[in-house]
Amino acid sequence: MGNIHFKHREPIGSSTFPMPGDPVDRDLIGARLSQPANDYNQSTVYIHIPFCDQICSFCGFNKAVSSETTKERYVKALVREIEIYAKTDYVQSLDLRAVYLGGGTPNALNANQLSRILQALHDNLPLSDDVEITSEGVIQNFDTARIRALKDGGVNRISAGVQTFDKAIREAQLHMRNGKEELLEGIANLRASFDNFNLDFIYNLPGQTDEIWEEDVRLALSSGAQHLTFYPLVLLENTIFYADYVKNEKYAMPDEAREIAMYLFALEQLKHSVYSNRYSVRDWAQPGRDCRYIRMNAESNHILAFGAGAHGYLAGVTYRTIRSTIKYMEHIEQQHSLPLDAMRAATRRELMQRYAVMGLRMRDLDLDPFAERFGERFLDVFSTEVQQLIASGYLVLNGDRLHFTDKGDIWANNVRTHFEGGAAAKVGYTDTVSIGQDGKTHYSKVTRIKASGDVEANV
Questions:
Q1: In this predicted model, what pLDDT tens digit does every residue of 399-425 receive, in sequence order?
Q2: What domains appear along the chain, each with residue ranges and CATH number?
Q3: In this structure, are strands 127-137 and 197-203 parallel, antiparallel, or unpaired?
Q4: Which residues are paired to 302 by β-bridges?
Q5: Predicted local distance difference test score (pLDDT) of residue 103
Q6: pTM of the model
């Protein structure tokens, strides 16, 4: 049994496993949703809003700049989809403890549209009394009307993408509006309106010098946010960055050693900050402020997903809704049935793998629930993988918990992918397709490139 050495740092880990790549079996889906869930009935809700005011260079999610007429039609279809699922015994038996509005840009919708979506959730689904409801959005769109609609609809957590405070990079490279002063003003507005919000940042961007990154980290730490998320740059096909880097050779290809150095700098700064609760491989929070939605998805709970291209997991089945916004709306309007595009009825082995792939987003994986769920010990089922990863210095075993080492922190997504085995042809943002040479690295001859995906269902 040899040691494992990963050739390239995997920048993003799978958010759906096993991938829903099989034809839809509506009889099977109908039969499973006609029965209540078993004892494992905790669930999250994901809602995809595929609209943006502008298209950012790095984004490979299912999104578009659309008319108000299309947005209104989409909201009506989305509410109808919620009502269709809500009629099933399975969904009504779930304990829905966290909701996430993602995109796209949820606050590209107006206040009335946001209110109607949130009202549909409360009217139709068994949300827990203390449900966490998160809405993504761009900072400049959190105006008074939208904030009131979100708060009235029960939203108690916000997630906003800053990426960098540097105005030149934002405008020229990212195609994003506003610079440091406007962003800090918007963050102050969030602080005054919500007592729990996250800010996203990307490192290794084109033009992002050490000085710019140090300033980004400094401002993030002083922002007053309760939660911070840090991602490396990832090049996704069908994005502006893919054309800039690969087709037009506008920028030199991202350097992996520099990426790791920037990550380690941020890691060191965060160690000495109020964000001492580093509970996942890319998420830092103040104590007690970790995201329930992220944690529950990592625990292999159900994911009830709505909207064009959204990925969910119910009754042992991973599924994807119709990707095309137009076809999604037409299906609901004409068929009045679940707008499914693909599915995968997971085998027992795949459900076990799912526990590892999803769970190792957390830096500390509890193995006891695995035995309760499957009647077998995790360390017996995955003895080879665990022994190799421990011997190679990526993981340590403390009792019945697996924990990442410092080395493992850097290569965490590679570790996750390792548990996918031969089923790892599609990884990363959901529905991405590897263009690498094998199922583990997912890299082409030019590293950092992945096929563009739809929606990350566990964010």
A1: 999 999 999 999 999 999 999 985 444
A2: 1-16+361-453 (no CATH), 26-297 (3.80.30.20)
A3: unpaired
A4: 43
A5: 84
A6: 0.90
